[in-house]
């Protein structure tokens, strides 16, 4: 862990890259990246230098800080969520131009890697040579490990700021929430995770890998004050009933059919009552876009029917925010180039519009 702003700034310059550049390409999506850079920096040349200069303003920036993690190595159905950070940012800039936020950039992603613990020494040395031109560097090389390492330092340096993470497959929420929860514990804050998803993400492992899009929740439970501080909303695609997950892991769940059958107000009352009864101080919201019904969110790796509408999700989020401050959040699993509907760009644009609306709300709440 670094110990000062100057050393943390150096780590940012090494481990991160300009917004939109998290997917390593030469020509692919070049025009889209240039449009994003023009919107952020007023030009599309010398972006590295301009971004480095912008990072200097982080200490005086807004409370809400964007971090892109363009990794889908932890996914496993349809890939493509690595393009989420580029497209979601562009949608936010186009649809919410007055949003008050600071963009810290993207994690530098080697797309074949997930977490450093899966790598041998030779691979670590090769990747450090590629990323940092120094095979003896002690810096991490995998997206999950880089994200957690950077954010431990971020929260130590800026305890009043909050991260809005843009993924990426949902494994990315593992380091985002882990660093957040550990920082809040050090501050004496009891924090809850409100997790919107069609799936529980409570596997212990998937095909022998313990950190992935289907298991990340399991591996942050020890960082919560109590397992019930993980509140899941919108669940509907599961091989096991609700009782299995709640009894096995101690989490609280509100399945999508309950929202439809009982009404959104009844679910809101249950969630807010729990937050109040458990003396929750702050909330982190992790939002998998497939929590929404596939008619609203089809550009994702696992679109599911019978989900929430954007208005239902926002109703719940507004009620949560009225009960507890939202001080961290993420938007995950938007895969702009996937399409289960055959509608092409219309499918992508509708998914991005829903994701941007929810993201803008969360960013505004973090700023408060």
Automatic annotation (TrEMBL):
Keywords: Hydrolase, Metal-binding. GO terms for biological process: putrescine biosynthetic process from arginine, via agmatine. GO terms for molecular function: agmatinase activity; metal ion binding. The keyword Zinc does not apply. InterPro entries: Ureohydrolase, Ureohydrolase_dom_sf. PROSITE patterns: ARGINASE_2. It holds the Pfam family Arginase. Belongs to the arginase family. This is Agmatinase. It comes from Colwellia chukchiensis. The lineage of its organism: Bacteria, Pseudomonadati, Pseudomonadota, Gammaproteobacteria, Alteromonadales.
